[in-house]
Write a structure and sequence with these properties.
Length: 358
């Protein structure tokens, strides 16, 4: 079996050698090259033709964010960001790299004598192997569109369903994974200020980066962001995330977290959130499933549809990874399958009558 070729971009010789050690001892992987700067990585990219890139963020000269942008524009290659710091400056660069096209973020493994080395090394190798399978396209700078400019809806008649009482929604749930940060920026920006629903969000991300992700999301979207650690009553204009390694649920109109078993291999799980919304809100639930690997959220989205709520999945034409939305379509859980630029306008259409009635 052909091994997965890894390009390591890391300026610290010690960390670079550690990452080479991990890759070299993983039977799925092999080193394509290991370099100390983004400039060098760009010079050899075409020649070494890696399947996946391990990208440091803080590099001499060009940083990991700019390198990610260049690679996505010139030779799209799956990128896993490897960061040693959760401090604000590095986190901002890391989250912007995810928006620019990097697929995942991981903590740098500590030395081989660290108690966490084995688990971090295994996670690092597995993420590289999984992300190497993602097919990417060149990214161009997109023009800003007003709400009046609509992208053609891609949905068959069988995928479309008019909500049982349009405008009666009480909460929107969004679930995403690989490719999610970039999709979220576009979706949330399209909703704009004054959106009439609270938003419960599950984005699969390493727990140690959750706080930075929340701060970053607040800085790039029109919404305030709350990490739920106890019971909270959701209000419009705010996004709610589960505390690290906790499920997010809705019960009797209140959001709360719990440490139940992982579902679909995830905690928080989008299926847990969607199922609780279906049970608590019935036809007043609005569920949105975006790009992501695996099948989390699909069964929960089906429950929302079965209870009379409205469900939207990102169409294959724009999803970075079509795993989660594709599984929802396969299950018959999707009222509408839409390309990402059409999702926010459709949500605004669905919720507009709420504002008119109010």
């Amino acid at each position: 079996m052909r091994k997965i070729r890894v390009l390591i971009v890391e300026d610290s010789i010690v960390i670079r050698e550690l990452l080479e050690h991990i890759v070299g001892h993983d039977p799925r992987l092999e080193i394509a090259a290991a370099v100390g700067s983004a400039e060098e990585a760009l010079r050899i990219l075409e020649r070494v033709s890696p399947d996946v890139i391990s990208m440091d963020i803080r590099l001499p000269g060009m940083n990991g964010l700019e390198a990610t942008r260049r690679i996505m524009a010139e030779r799209p290659t799956p990128i896993v960001v490897v960061s040693a710091s959760v401090e604000s400056e590095d986190l901002q660069i890391t989250m912007n790299a995810l928006q620019a096209g990097a697929l995942a973020v991981l903590e740098k493994p500590a030395g081989t004598t660290s108690g966490e080395y084995e688990s971090l090394a295994q996670r690092f190798g597995t993420q590289l192997a999984i992300m190497s399978e993602v097919k990417l396209v060149r990214r161009r700078v997109a023009a800003t569109h007003t709400r009046a400019v609509r992208t053609r809806t891609i949905a068959t008649h069988s995928e479309r369903q008019v909500a049982s009482h349009p405008g009666g929604y009480r909460m929107m749930g969004i679930v995403c994974s690989t490719g999610g940060p970039s999709a979220l920026v576009q979706l949330l920006g399209g909703l704009g200020t004054g959106f009439p629903l609270p938003i419960a969000l599950v984005q699969h991300i390493t727990s140690s980066f959750l706080g930075g992700f929340a701060s970053w999301l607040e800085s790039v979207s029109p919404f305030s962001v709350t990490i739920v650690t106890d019971r909270v009553t959701p209000v419009p204009g705010r996004i709610y995330l589960a505390a690290p390694d906790r499920h997010l649920r809705l019960e009797y109109g209140t959001l709360l977290v719990d440490a139940g078993d992982p579902v679909c291999g995830q905690r928080p799980s989008g299926t847990v959130l969607f199922e609780s919304m279906a049970t608590d809100l019935g036809a007043a639930a609005l569920g949105v499933l975006l790009t992501g690997m695996g099948d989390d959220g699909a069964e929960g989205l089906l429950q929302i549809r079965n209870f009379g709520g409205h469900t939207i999945a990102e169409h294959e034409s724009t999803a970075v990874v079509y795993g989660m939305p594709g599984e929802a379509v396969r299950l018959g859980a999707v009222c509408e399958s839409l390309p990402l630029p059409a999702v926010a306008p459709r949500i605004l259409d669905l919720t507009l009558s709420m504002q008119e009635v109010a």
